[in-house]
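Exercise 7.
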Amino acid sequence: MTLFYRARRCIFLALLIFFSIQVNAAQRSIKRIITLSPHLAEIVDAAGAGHSLIGVSVDSNYPPFVRSLPVVADAYGCDYERIVALKPDLVIAWAGGNSWAEIHQLQTLHLPVHVIAFDHMVDIPQAILRVGQWAGTESAAKRFVSQFDQTFNNLQKRYAQVLPKKVFYQLSLQPLLTVTHRSMVSEVIEKCHGENIFGQAVGVAPQISMEDVIEKNPSVILVSEQAGDTIAIQQFWARYPQIDAVRDHRVVIIHSDLIERYGPRILQGMNEVCSAIASAQD
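Solution. The predicted structure, written as tokens, is:
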């Protein structure tokens, strides 16, 4: 789901500085945090402040304890009454998912709001460090980021010799949706030595035709698990044996929360993607 929100990001980036309240952990104690997107809850936990979470958005499911927290936002907006009732010290919003109107309304209610933007993988550890500063958990955040960086470097070394392969990333079966270079999924594919065959298409998650996929003939097909169950995915691609990835049994289902969320588990998703591309070597 998160991929479809990014189309609105440009509007918010220009206004970001006007609608963010900079929080200095040394000046105030941040003990009650609300997040307005699933990956933000993961960011807060990675920063060592998971114990401060008191409210989350719909579809927040990691770490597991957040499933029991009050849901205060979904794709249609925020539950302002519930947010106010929870008395947060900090509300963290996402520039690519929460609208200007939502952020403005939260500030009108005199709630401390900070907006975080994610464009590249490097923004993830930076966000973790920032939250650690706000929540007074800088040491924990720095430890996590150090491990994150080490894991990333290890992945780069492990797959350094992989030859480039054409890759198709499938978001859904019907309509047939994919990702472009504007998605962090595409960045992961590139870091794994894959070439996103629709990287230069227009938008973030465009609809494309099967004829286009056949013409581009990918060596690897990565399918988001949200596209459907395993049998449905297998039946879908079995109709196209002329595609190299299908012929060579290189259709791989990817855990969508790992690769489509801008959170710390993206390196687990990167490992899945790199492994799939590496297995397609001649």
